[in-house]
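2024-03-11 09:14:02 INFO queue: dequeued item Carbohydrate ABC transporter permease, len=281
2024-03-11 09:14:02 INFO validating residues
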Amino acid sequence: MGKKKFLRRGWFGTTISYIYLTLLAIIAAFPLVWILLSSVKSKAELAGDPTVFFPKHITFENFRIVFEQLNFGRNVGNSVLVALSTTLVAIAISALGAYGIVRFFPKFGRKLTRVLITTYMFPPILLAVPYSIIMGKFGLMNNRVGLVIVYMSFSVPYAIWLLVGFFQTVPIGIEEAARIDGANKLQVFYQVVLPIVAPGIVAVAIYTFINAWNEFLYSLILINSSEKATVAVALKSLEGQEVLDWGVMMAASAVVVIPSVIFFMLIQKKIAGGLAAGAVK
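2024-03-11 09:14:37 INFO prediction written
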């Protein structure tokens, strides 16, 4: 018993824990670091000895080719527009839907959330043809709006199911106190309830944004113009070249991965802040 406490609370156990977590962090970050370092290597260096970890000479020629010759910046803009639009609309719909389920239809809401989550039983490829037919009838093929609608059909059900659990933790007494102080229903929702469930909102934002940013299948099917293609499709198209330029591929991969990492790094502070605020409240 004494040894267990020593390992659990003593300096030795803490050291082992930090070493273990450090190793996991290195393993998780290694692919990203490899992509970034390979993207600044010259073609000759990649062809000569691609296993060398650090580049001998740093060059940004690969990024110049990606943005100037391949016009990858346009595809990045398309993905940012689609992912942000999907995230904002999904948060608005799911927050209102989850709050309505918890406060106005609690019994029906439990059954509804189970039905919503069953939509994830169907693989995306199974719904590709029906979605294509529907988007074609509404004139939304090769349209970023149609792509946002399709992404929302997958994101909103899961987001509502996730947020229902967060809204259930909000005491009704807090809302009643705000109503007594003169706040209307919208003010109670936006100024009282949403700050408490901020960690859930942030989790939904991360999930929705990253899924929309990385999605490939529906972007490939519904968008047939290179000017409107997302980064996932543009990156895949590089593999179709007769001679694959690994330097350009690594630079394009870095452009695809970095925004997701930056988005998560910026928003993770709000996760911790929201959890702390929720605990205090």
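2024-03-11 09:14:37 INFO annotate: The mean pLDDT is 79.
2024-03-11 09:14:38 INFO item closed
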